[in-house]
Design goal:
- The complex is a heterodimer of chains A (121) and B (139).
- Chain A has 121 residues and is an all-alpha fold.
- Helices cover 76% and strands 0% of the residues of chain A.
- Chain A contains four helices and no strands.
- Chain B has 139 residues and is mainly α.
- The chains are: A mainly alpha (121), B mainly alpha (139).
- Chains A and B meet through helix 1, helix 2, helix 3 and helix 4 of A and helix 3, helix 4 and helix 6 of B.
Chain lengths: 121, 139
């Protein structure tokens, strides 16, 4: 095992660095696939697109939780993807850090909005 | 002999840091095309998140807001934007599943990977066409 130096000479690269994010991106992807399949099955079963049917689907407690899980997965997944984009194309640390902070704030705001939408129904 | 070797060497393009002008000439394999489109579609979905959440909000809040949702999505320009987002989602979805399979070492051989990239690219377009025709009320 490498010794992770703490302080100004901390090792910031190497094997396993970023592996956690890599796994989370894949786990969250699977959660979203499951959610998509559930929505698709519901559409195929009910067939019609009415407000009553649509609202009834999301008023179900189980569906609310599944949707929230899918949304949290979406925002975490998006964070990792957008973080990768900033790391690939934005080299100056100050600009990159600013963009990363804005990305996190944007996604947290989206998450709050999502909770508000789901628990209004 | 040495001269000819050097002239061959000179003619070869050197891409130390690919610029925009070189990008046009740069021929990406299918896997590369699917990959950059996966990134672009993901970024597009990320940027449009507030709009998508707003649409979900309107569709769920009440009977009245549902009518507003239908009015918004009934607009031609909004439909075009939605079509772009539908493609983004479907391409990202299909290409993402391809990556999950590649992670499981399914279809990692060069020929298979190229074939699956072509398949995923056209599957994304075909599914977009299916949903798009519904969106524009053609069936």
């Amino acid at each position: 095992m490498p010794i992770y130096q703490i302080g100004p000479k901390r090792l910031v690269v190497g094997a396993h660095y970023g592996l956690k994010e890599w796994i989370i991106q894949r786990v969250t992807a699977i959660v979203m696939v499951v959610f998509t399949v559930v929505l698709l099955v519901d559409y195929c079963v009910t067939g019609s697109a009415t407000y009553e049917g649509w609202a009834a689907l999301f008023s179900n407690q189980f569906m609310k939780l599944l949707t929230l899980l899918a949304f949290i997965s979406l925002f975490y997944h998006a964070w990792i993807g957008i973080r990768d984009i900033w790391m690939d194309y934005i080299k100056p640390v100050s600009i990159r850090l600013t963009l990363q902070v804005l990305t996190v704030l944007y996604l947290v705001a989206c998450a709050a909005y999502a909770v508000q939408i789901l628990w209004k129904v | 002999m040495v001269d000819s070797q050097q002239s061959v060497k000179k003619d070869r393009p050197v891409y130390k840091n690919i610029g925009l002008a070189q990008l046009i000439k740069y021929r990406l394999p299918w896997a590369g095309k699917v990959s950059i489109l996966h990134r672009i579609s993901g970024a597009a979905l990320f940027l449009m998140l507030p709009f998508l959440l707003y649409l979900l909000d309107q569709s769920l809040a009440s009977e009245l807001s549902y009518q507003k949702f239908q009015a918004i999505t009934g607009h031609f320009l909004v439909k075009i934007i939605c079509l772009g987002l539908i493609w983004s989602f479907l391409h990202h979805f299909c290409a993402g599943i391809r990556y999950l399979l590649l992670d499981l070492e399914i279809g990692v051989e060069k020929v298979d990977a190229n074939r699956s990239a072509i398949f995923v690219f056209f599957l994304g377009l075909a599914l977009t066409a299916v949903v798009g025709l519904k969106l524009f009320g053609l069936y």
